[in-house]
Amino acid sequence: MGTFIKFLGTAGARIVVSKQIRASGGIWFQHDKLAFFIDPGPGALVKALTSKPKLEPWKLSAILLSHRHIDHANDLNIMVESMTEGNTKKRGMVFLPKDALEEEKVLFSYLTPMLQEIVLLEEGKEYSIGNLRFATPCRHWHPVETYGFKFYLKDNLTVSFITDTLYNPKLQEAYQKSDLLIINMVRTKPDNANAVMHLNADDVEKLVKAIKPKMAVITHFGMQVILNKPWKIAEEISQKTGIQVVAARDGMQLDLESIFKNSVQHTT
Ligand SMILES: [Zn+2]
After folding, report:
1. Where in this chain does the record put each Metallo-beta-lactamase domain (predicted)?
2. Which SS3 state, helix, strand or coil, does residue 227 take?
3. What is the pLDDT of residues 196-205, one digit of tens each?
4. Lower CB density within 10 Å: C or N end of the chain?
């Protein structure tokens, strides 16, 4: 089965998501027999089931929500229903920020009795799903409570997801020693007032330079990025940083064992 990450969508922000210019189904993460899901946006269930080969949500052990915005959380309930086999089997965990459970309840109450555990995410904490450890090293700068994830895989491989956030220097420290860095890059340029609180291409360049992963992937594209061709922006960042940067495509699968087979040791 192996370890892979499959992008069931690469859309970010309002226009690209609401017009489905890119899909917005979130990310399936398979780590040997353990499967979990990150940010089930609109279309997550359908994209999983129509994926080839089919990804079966009733095999998920957990669903992780970085924050409660609709492009990340829309399909949370239906994915929970599928994970619990139509709300008939008590199984699976949901990890989410407190404000997604209290301030704006994005998880329906009637589904919660069938979940094995609901875990609130907090800054600087570690968690486990089966034998997989992960951390939420810092709270992101975003209009609602938001966290990124750092997964500690077998063979000393660290995979980090920098989800929605405004750039801040704390991110470099928080996500250091990541072998694979996945970054939500919604914009090419800063917006005037930084009101949307998202990363742009210059921010990604700074982060890649500072963190020095073996490979970086950009995803969660807004309209500006789509119009400027994500793969061109990725290529530019690669040239400026000397690190391989790839623009995610809908349905793209990263097989971590083949990408990292010769280099799983950290250079400090
Ligand atoms: Zn957001």
Report:
1. 37-221
2. helix
3. 799 999 999 9
4. C
